[in-house]
Structure formats: structure tokens, C-alpha cells
């Protein structure tokens, strides 16, 4: 696909500019500067298009794990998951109910076939990631694993479309400045660029994030009723606060940013940890490969670096994710506006200790690793394709 170093994606040659944590900068190839320039010549629109495609692909792929994480965290916060109607899981409990004779009379009759089976209490409680996925499929249907995907797509496309291009632009500008004026600060550029760009994306698109969390956390108890979409979910958040006073209504719309502080408290450290981990790993691998790198190798390098960085960042920020979920699913709008991240963390610690703070960590890291790897690698490949198109023109 590619035969020479100058034709490789811009991030390959840019990545071969080594920056160690003593602030020493050394270039491994004379072609680095020209490729960096071509990367910087890509406009915000091209970068946003690349990021949007990566975000859409990742959002659809990992949504079931997002469902599992949110359900586990919501359950820990006290959200009940009662299943109404005939139990489709009775066969799973048949072998455990009759031998020890601890089942209720109605459950026993259900097993013997005298009346429709009724869910035992265990049907309404999730015990882990696989248990969530299994019960959602059996009780709600396979397609419900993608509940909130429309919100995820509505959220991911603009969020990542802002996030990654801004990160690229901030990183390129800051690295150019620090390399010339303060080399000792250059290793920390990914951390700062990631934090600032993520903050911009979060504030811009937060109401849709709020809708997605509520759509994933709550399930419809009425069979055959279509669950509310993004717009209806947001209206349900606003309606309890509506009044005849226009100014008061405008002030009440801030409820759509309920939990923004917790979101920023989670996403800013996540981005800081992720990019400050991803960039050194990517540079080290690409530095080892050198001139022999092929396009698949580069793709694998980006996915691997993103996978590792995503897992580490997700694990480190899990308590903040639990606090964010608890604030977003609060149904009392007055209490929701008064909740603070620090108080929420103390409440979670009081209720569940360390285990409570890391509720849902399994599906969170299982989602974050592939998601970051897919987004970063897909984003860079599309950028490379756009760059190659410009070269041919």
C-alpha cells in the first residue's frame, strides 16, 4: 500500500520525533518536518470528518458494554429493575428451585406448568457484566443491547468531531511552541492538549450525554411500549421544573447540564491519562519499527497504544464515572441541582466502600480499551486517506 517513508501517514513521521521526559527532543528522520506540515495543512473539517466516522463505528460496536456498566452502576445507586410479565428464564431456575424446596408456591406451580412462570427475585438483580447482557437479551430482547445507540451516535459524532481535531490542533501548536521555547515542557503537551480539548467537547454536547445515560439506566416496565428517545428523555428532565415565568424557565434549563462537573471531573483526567500514556507508547513502537513500517503495522500500533491507554485511563477514573452516573440518573431535579461530585463520592463510599467506587469497572475497561483503540486508529487512517487524495490531486 505504501512504499516509502514520506508517503506514510503524517502521524508516523511526527511520531518519530522522540521526546523523553527529560525534555530532550531528537528527530529520527529528515522527512518529519515535511509530514508534520502536511498534517497541519489538513483543515478542521477534514479532521472532524475523520473523527466522526471513528466515533460512529466505535459507538455501535461497544454499546452493549456501555449498557452493562450503566445498569450495574444504576443498580448500586438503588434503581430497581423489576421485570413485569411471564418469566422467560424459568428454565434457568428449574434445576435449582425444586431440589432444595425453597421456592414459593407460585414458582413451583410455574415449573410444573399449571400457570405462566413468574420471575424469582434473582431475575431482577444483576450480578455482573455477563449477567446484565444475558438478562437484557432474555427479558427485553437482543436489540435492547443497543438501547441508547441513537443517543450515542448523536453524542459521539459531534463530541469526537470536536475533541480529536482540537487535540490535534492544540498539540501541534503547543509542541511547536514548547520545542522552540521550553523543551522541558514538551512531554506534557499531550496531557494539556487532551484536557483542554475534552473540556470543550463535554460542555458543548453534555445534554445528549445526560439523555444517553438515562436511556441506558432505566428500562420500560410495560411490555410493547416503545421507550422514549433522546428528545423525549430530555423533555422529561425539563418538564417537572417548568413554570409560567420565562426567566425562571431559562434558568431551569441548567438541569440539562446536571452532573457536568462530575463529567468533567471524569473526562478531563481520563483524557490527560490517556494521551500522556498513548503518545509515548505509540512513539516507542514506531521508533522500534523505523523505516520498515507498513500501513497495517502502523494501524496495529495505533490500536495497541490506544487499547492500553484506554484501559489504564478507564480504571483510574472509574470512581468518577460512578459518581457521574449517580448524578445523571437522579430523578428529583431539585436534588440533582444540589448534588456535588465530592459529596456523591462520599455517599458512594459510605454505601458500598471501595467496591462501590469501582462498580462496573469490568465493562468500563472492556469498553474503553477497544473504543479508544478503534477511534484513534480509524481516525488516523481516514486522515491518511484524505492526505493521500490531496497528494494525487
TrEMBL record:
Solcar repeat feature ranges: 42-173, 185-284, 297-385
GO biological process: mitochondrial transmembrane transport
Subcellular location(s) per record: Mitochondrion inner membrane
Keyword field: Membrane, Mitochondrion, Mitochondrion inner membrane, Repeat, Transmembrane, Transmembrane helix, Transport
Domain of life from the UniProt record: Eukaryota
UniProt source species: Quercus lobata
Keyword Phosphoprotein part of the UniProt annotation: no
Key word Magnesium present: no
Bilayer topology annotation: Multi-pass membrane protein
Protein name stated in the entry: Mitochondrial carrier protein
UniProt record similarity statement: Belongs to the mitochondrial carrier (TC 2.A.29) family.
Cellular component annotations (GO), alphabetically ordered: mitochondrial inner membrane
Coiled coil: none
Amino acid at each position: 500500500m505504501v512504499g516509502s517513508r514520506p508517503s506514510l501517514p503524517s502521524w508516523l513521521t511526527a511520531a518519530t520525533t522522540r521526546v523523553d521526559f527529560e525534555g530532550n527532543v531528537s528527530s529520527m528522520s529528515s522527512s518529519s518536518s515535511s509530514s508534520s506540515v502536511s498534517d497541519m495543512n489538513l483543515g478542521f473539517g477534514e479532521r472532524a470528518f475523520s473523527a466522526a466516522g471513528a466515533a460512529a463505528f466505535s459507538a455501535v460496536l461497544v454499546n452493549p458494554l456501555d449498557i452493562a456498566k450503566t445498569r450495574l452502576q444504576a443498580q448500586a445507586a438503588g434503581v430497581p429493575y423489576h421485570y413485569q410479565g411471564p418469566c422467560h428464564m424459568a428454565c434457568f431456575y428449574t434445576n435449582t428451585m425444586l431440589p432444595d424446596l425453597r421456592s414459593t408456591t407460585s414458582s413451583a406451580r410455574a415449573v410444573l406448568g399449571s400457570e405462566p412462570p413468574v420471575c424469582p427475585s434473582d431475575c431482577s438483580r444483576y450480578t455482573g457484566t455477563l449477567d446484565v447482557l444475558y438478562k437484557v437479551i432474555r427479558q427485553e430482547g437482543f436489540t435492547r443491547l443497543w438501547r441508547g445507540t441513537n443517543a450515542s451516535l448523536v453524542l459521539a459524532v459531534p463530541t469526537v468531531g470536536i475533541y480529536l481535531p482540537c487535540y490535534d490542533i492544540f498539540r501541534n501548536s503547543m509542541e511547536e511552541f514548547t520545542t522552540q521555547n521550553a523543551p522541558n515542557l514538551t512531554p506534557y503537551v499531550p496531557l494539556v492538549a487532551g484536557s483542554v480539548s475534552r473540556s470543550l467537547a463535554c460542555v458543548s454536547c453534555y445534554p445528549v450525554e445526560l439523555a444517553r445515560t438515562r436511556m441506558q439506566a432505566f428500562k420500560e416496565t410495560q411490555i410493547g411500549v416503545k421507550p422514549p428517545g433522546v428528545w423525549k428523555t430530555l423533555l422529561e428532565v425539563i418538564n417537572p421544573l417548568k413554570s409560567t415565568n420565562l426567566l425562571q424557565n431559562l434558568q431551569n434549563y441548567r438541569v440539562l447540564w446536571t452532573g457536568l462537573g462530575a463529567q468533567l471531573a471524569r473526562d478531563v483526567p481520563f483524557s490527560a491519562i490517556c494521551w500522556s500514556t498513548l503518545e509515548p507508547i505509540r512513539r516507542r513502537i514506531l521508533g522500534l519499527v523505523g523505516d520498515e513500517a507498513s500501513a497495517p503495522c502502523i494501524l496495529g500500533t495505533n490500536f495497541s497504544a490506544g487499547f492500553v491507554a484506554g484501559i489504564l485511563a478507564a480504571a483510574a477514573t472509574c470512581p468518577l464515572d460512578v459518581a457521574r452516573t449517580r448524578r445523571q440518573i437522579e430523578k428529583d431535579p431539585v436534588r440533582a441541582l444540589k448534588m456535588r461530585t465530592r459529596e456523591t463520592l462520599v455517599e458512594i463510599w459510605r454505601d458500598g466502600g471501595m467496591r462501590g467506587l469501582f462498580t462496573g469497572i469490568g465493562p468500563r475497561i472492556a469498553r474503553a480499551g477497544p473504543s479508544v483503540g478503534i477511534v484513534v486508529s480509524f481516525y488516523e487512517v481516514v486522515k491518511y486517506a484524505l492526505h493521500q487524495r490531496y497528494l494525487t490531486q
